[in-house]
What we know:
The protein is an alpha/beta fold and 372 residues long. It has helices at residues 136-149, 163-175, 180-192, 195-200, 227-236, 259-269, 273-277, 281-287, 293-297, 340-343, 345-360; strands spanning 5-6, 14-17, 36-45, 48-57, 81-84, 107-111, 154-160, 209-216, 305-310, 329-333.
Amino acid sequence: xxxxxxxAASAPMLERPVPAQAYCNGVYPGKVTNDVxxxxxxxSMGAYRTDIFVREVRPPRSRVMGGSxxxxxxxxxxxxxxxxxxxxxxxxxxxxxxxxxLSGRRxxxxxxCEAPVERGWLPPRPKRGPREVRxxxxxxxxxxxxxxxxxxxxxxxxxxxxxxxAALHLVELLRQPVSAATAATAATAAxxxxxxTAAAAAPPPSRVRLASLVxxxxxxxxEDLRPVQQRRLQNWDELxxxxxxxxxxxxGTESAGQQCVVEANxxxxxxxxxxxxxxxxEESRAESLGRGQxxxxxxxASVPTMLLRGGSADPVEPSWDLxxxxxxxxxxxxxxxxxxxxxxxxEVLFDLLAHLDAADGVSTNRNGVGVS
Length: 372
């Protein structure tokens, strides 16, 4: 049972500016913007306390070396993008998506569920919590705590892999009339006060609204993976083959040599072995996204939703039944594996910008996105 969440609204956020660095031999974000802020948001759940690492990337106010885009005046009033990677994995492997700032939107990357991060300014890492605090539902509560602490109203959510399960829990939290960060206070008031007093003390609704949702190769349970990947994980404790570079073709064509693709695959598989291998039957049934279960957990048709997946090299079994959700856009990248935003970086970025612009009813900048 997950304990009630409490987040101290007045708790200070530790913040430091950092130099921008590109990931996976890419041009982002170093040639896009030098306006990057990183901070810690405090989070508590019952007796458990930790800090959530948040990276906020802002559109460039002036041109940076190698870049051609800047926003010297007032920034467009557009919802930011929340990047949700695999809970327990560092944000770094999603860093190519920070190029979305070229549209004038801020981008937030979050390390959920005690994902490791190395920064000289960080305090000592807190003691590791129990397994129950490293579940998709808890990751969702941490994401909502970050949104509320950052004063976000509407937000676009991009979620990858097991982060998709966390994003779907976030969708459920945003359906609730009160925010997760104040739910514990309301419950306490209701239990200790009269009905009249409790009603007066009820917290206001959450300000956070889901502007759109993108799920990339989402999974929530072992059965969501292809059979060969299930066996690999069960027999060798490895979700992805460590010698597989997904940018190399199966037809013997030469790989682009980006070992970071292999590293990202391994990285996004390992932190959540326990979520797949050690989950109870009840947990697996609740988190599985196969057949009609994904459709049942998606936001309603008023929220623009897109589903991305790789080709045959993607370890996720595309068994979703979305026949009743014709509003959901689906995009397959045939020559990509589990990480299309690395394997097909520019194509994915253009698809995402088209999706975001359609949701916001605007047409934003594309210049600089296709730079390689």
